[in-house]
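#struct-pred
JK: can someone run the complex with pyridoxal-5'-phosphate? inputs below
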Amino acid sequence: MNLENTLLMIPGPVPIVPRVQRAMSKPMFGHRGEEFGTIYDECREILAQLFGTNNEIFIISGSGTASIEAAIGNLIGKDDTIVTIENGKFGERLCDIGDRYGRAVKLQYEWGTPIDLDAVDNALEQGAKAIAMVHNETSAAIRNPVEKVAELAKKHGALFIMDAITTVGGDTVLVDEWGVDIAFMGSQKCIAAPPGLSAITVSDAAWDAMVDNRPYYLDLKAYRKSGSNNPSQTPYTPGVPLFSAMLEALRIVQEEGMEKRKHRHSQGAAAVRAAAGVLGIELFPTIDQYHSYSNTVTAMNIPQGITDKQLRGEMLDMNIQISGGQAHLKGKIFRIGSMGNFTATDMITTICALELVLHRHGLIDNIGEGVEAAYKELE
Ligand SMILES: *Cc1c(COP(=O)(O)O)cnc(C)c1O
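RT: done, structure tokens with the ligand placed:
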């Protein structure tokens, strides 16, 4: 029986509210006219605030990875060196794309463990055109020290590329203040729009450093040229209904206010961690003074005595979908998102279902302690 009411508590895509869904179902309109240009410009204006930048924003029709490829593909030629940092699945993607376009010097750490800032310093010392890293490593639920790496990039004259896909719209992002050259986000994560769009921002220094042999579909200079038309446009036909949906989602972000929204996200993650604490579930990532637990997703070890399939399958039977681990973490960890327009009730419901499953498997004695611990963080 499909009741279409599964509570999606995964770290993207996240549920979209009816307002956003309705915005998507308007009659079709062209992408070279006033109507599209107005929507595009308003999206870009709000997104610039969420990125904390005065630089221009461009929106690519494609998922977040399209922007990663745009960032690296426009900056890195085959003889260029890029330092890439990996402590999770998405850092690995930066390494892979870096290698595809140029020479990636890979700093690789066990997923969910801290990166070594001295190693970053040393790698940049050898000379690199750019360095790329993930702000919030969604696969491992660890938030990486982007400000520290930005300082090191500046010290060595390297451009800094930041994957802010699961922080823009849910956590603090200060592109200009931190000195980030290229940053990008994905529509299906914290702003709670449907998947399919990705926004990217580019500094003056990055524009000046772009290679001649740029990707065709993802040529950022083509995006800049079309973006300055009146009405503003994208180079090729964009996912028009997705832009209408994104604008509505961004208006909702503005109505809530970024301060409140960030607080709500951090409370959501704190609630899951508090529940894990009393339920005897270990948090997966290892943090130190420079790293922290993610505010938008929480990763936990699957407890002894239950399998991934049982844990997530039985939650799904209760109409709640959570995530497992990616790649070698599959079967070892599970993840609960606190991302988008979730409510305190969504968090409580999720924790309650988790408790019911653990109780059924004899892993906890009482039901309700996790909910109580979570609720204290949500008040
Ligand atoms: C979701 C995500 C991406 C992009 O994935 P897509 O499937 O291309 O949208 C990249 N980096 C991080 C940190 C993510 O969470």
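RT: quick notes.
The chain is about 45% helix and 15% strand.
The domain at 18-254 is CATH 3.40.640.10 (Aspartate Aminotransferase; domain 2).
JK: thanks, will look after standup
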